[in-house]
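Q: What structure does this chain adopt?
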Amino acid sequence: MDARLPVFPLGTVLFPGLVLPLHIFEARYLELMRHLRGLPDGTPREFGVVAIRRGGSASVSAGPEPESGIGPEPRSGRPGLTDRHPNGSPVTLHEVGCTAELRQVTELPDGRLDVVTVGRRRFRIAGVEEGATPYLTAEVEWLPEPAGQEQLADLLAPRVLSVFRRYLTLVRDDPEEISEQLPDDPTVLSHLVAATAALTLTDRQRLLATPDTAGRLSAELRLLNREAALLRQVRAVPVPLTELAVPASPN
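A:
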């Protein structure tokens, strides 16, 4: 069933179950937060987070976006999804996003907001509407997890988990502490890997748009193996001979 959703363009990709803190200072998104906070108790305080494909970013800041590729980008049937930067320049959006549920709001003395959100459910933008509200709204269709690939996902999950643990030993100071917290559920694991591995925004967007968990895990297996191989190569580069030179002893 289609729904109308406030849309928040960002220079990042949000996945279900992942935390996204935001620092908000643009007037239209401050208005969006006021709207969400004014909803009746029990009403989901959700807005859509959509990654920017091209153009300037909205006046918010999110966590740092690590940088890396899988096959061609999924073909979009609606390539013209646009918003506008405060300076008036067009901003082209990706078609698939994830809703963010507002969990915590901290008001700053100058009116800005620090908010904490959590990703909930994926959607595809069917059409955008400008002018009805200060912020962008869109007609969206929900993208539930399709049935039929559960057995393949169950087979892939342990392999991805194993490769991800090895990958963490190459990029983290204390990988053991992190690997102890890794989930066994294939869907949750697929979202966590997509959000936390050092991938480009393009890679992450492709993973978010992948229809099912098995497809996502399969792509992540290739990405993690590639990234781990690159990291091992970097670490195996010989130290220049000049760095090994020792001054001759006068004795």
